[in-house]
Structures are given as C-alpha cells and as structure tokens.
Amino acid sequence: MVAALSVILLFQLAGEVVSRAAHLPLPGPVLGMVAMVVALSLSPRLNALVRPTAQGLLQHLSLLFVPAGVGVVAHMPVLAEYGTALALALVGSTLVAIVVGAVTFTLVARLVGSRADD
Predict the structure, then answer these.
(1) pTM (2 d.p.)
(2) Structural domain of 45
(3) Is residue 40 within 8 Å of 47, Cβ to Cβ?
(4) What is the DSSP track for the chain?
(5) Which of 42, 59, 76 is the last residue of a domain?
(6) Angular region, 26: left φ>0, alpha ψ -120 to 50, beta rest
C-alpha cells in the first residue's frame, strides 16, 4: 500500500513540477493524472501495484470532500457577499454546458449518420 501511494504521489509531484516549470495553465495534479493513465495503460505491473490501493481510496472518496466542506463553512462571509453572483454563475454555466452538450451530440449524430428512428 505504501508503494502504491508513493507511486500515486510521485505522479502528482511530477505533474506539479512540469506544470510550474513550463508555466502551463493546467494544474499539476491533472498533468500527473494524465501521465499516470498513460503509464498504467503501458505497464500491467504498475497497474497491478496501484489497483488495490486506488480501489480502497475510491471506496472512501466521500471523506475527501470533508475538507472542501469545511472550507466552504469557513468562508461563509464571502459566500454571503457573493452568493447571488455565484448562484447565477453556477446556473448559467450549467445551462450553457447542457446546451453545448446537446448541440455537440446532435452534430456528431448527424456526422455519423444516426437517425432518430433507429
């Protein structure tokens, strides 16, 4: 388990180093995750090492949201001040994402020749 966690954290560290060194607009953990997906798909041995630990982490994923919830509660004054704007931004971005997803789906369906009556 320690070895698998070390591998996961090393990929996160590598992504962080690349992101900061190259001044990329992507978060380091995202780059590390992409690198890890590539490594896991190329190395069955690494996959076998990391899989049990990753599954254990996924079983307790809800615990990882506790710090975020505490952060929200700790910043209640900011939420009170900007709550309306945040709510409008959240609803607006959700609607835009739904519309863009529907339009994209429609265009891709037309490209591949799918019909509604199929």
Answers:
(1) 0.59
(2) 1-59
(3) yes
(4) -HHHHHHHHHHHHHHHHHHHHTT-SS-HHHHHHHHHHHHHHH-HHHHHHHHHHHHHHHHTGGGGGHHHHHHHHHTHHHHHHHHHHHHHHHHHHHHHHHHHHHHHHHHHHHHHT--TT-
(5) 59
(6) beta
Summarised one tens digit per residue, pLDDT across range 73-95 is 999 998 899 999 999 999 999 99
Both 48 and 23 in one domain: the answer is: yes
Query: What count of other Cβ atoms lies within 10 Å of the Cβ of residue 12?
Result: 19
Locate 28 and state its tokens: 């380091």
Do 38 and 78 belong to one domain?
A: no
The string of DSSP codes covering 89-108 is: HHHHHHHHHHHHHHHHHHHH
Q: Which amino acid is at 55?
A: Q
Domain count within the chain: 2
Which amino acid is it at 112?
V
Average pLDDT value for the chain: 92
